[in-house]
Design goal:
The complex is a heterodimer of chains A (171) and B (100).
Chain A: E1 16-25, H1 33-46, E2 50-66, E3 69-81, H2 86-95, E4 99-106, H3 113-134, H4 167-170
Antiparallel strand pairs in A: 1-3, 1-4, 2-3
Chain B: H1 7-22, H2 28-38, H3 54-59, H4 70-73, H5 77-92
Amino acid sequence: MSSGPSTQAPGEARLRPYEAMFLVANKEARKTHDYLEEHVKSLLDKVGARPSRFGKWEQRTLAYEIKGQREGIFYLCYFEVDPKQIAALKREAALSELVLRMLVLALDRIPTEDEERRRAASVEEALREGEEVRGEGGFEGGGGGGGDRRRGRGPRGESGGIEPSGAGAMS
Amino acid sequence: MPKKKSRIALARARQRRYKKFVDRGPCRFTRKEAALRKAEQLPAGGLLISYKDLNTLERLCSQQGKLFSRKRSGNSASFQRQLKNAVKQARYLGLLPFVG
């Protein structure tokens, strides 16, 4: 693939749409929120990305500590860039002290805000409708920490632990 | 001493026990996708589950943060795969725990 002759005209890079989520340390953010935003934007500028949408997604407590940080601000960005520059973007993010994590996903096309909202609502609805139809409450207890793995000392097949018997007590 | 059940009998008993988890028709996301397609509101790539749908991911994970099995959640293979990828991406970003 890489050894084949390029069909691209020289000097004209084909751009591809991407979605990137930046997790930025919150410790510094308290003082310089705008600075962080500028910092993330500068990373994209360095690799020649053309952002079409950029904004703060959420500020939340992390599920686990990352580089000593328990909280972080998430910035979501949709942009177009030459695919060859993604490696450079990852390198820049890794070198940055403020960016804790970065996730880049290639897209077919950049969704509009409305499309994204409708998609999220559809997924949410599907989940809710599924629970109504099934009506088993099987998602409430978390499976008692074992899912469908066999538990207990009974003979094989007799002790299938799929019912979250102790799940109510746990929560 | 009680008579030992044959393997077939045990398998049938297991089947009966899992029946309520298994015989539930198509997956909820597949159903939703079909409904959207019928209403001509389905996006070009189909219904996609993202790592940003945290509420959905949390509801389909155990308290330990492990994704429920297909047998339990009733998801189709393709949506279970999407969920798997979404959970892994969310874990990487610190949105979901690796261990509960």
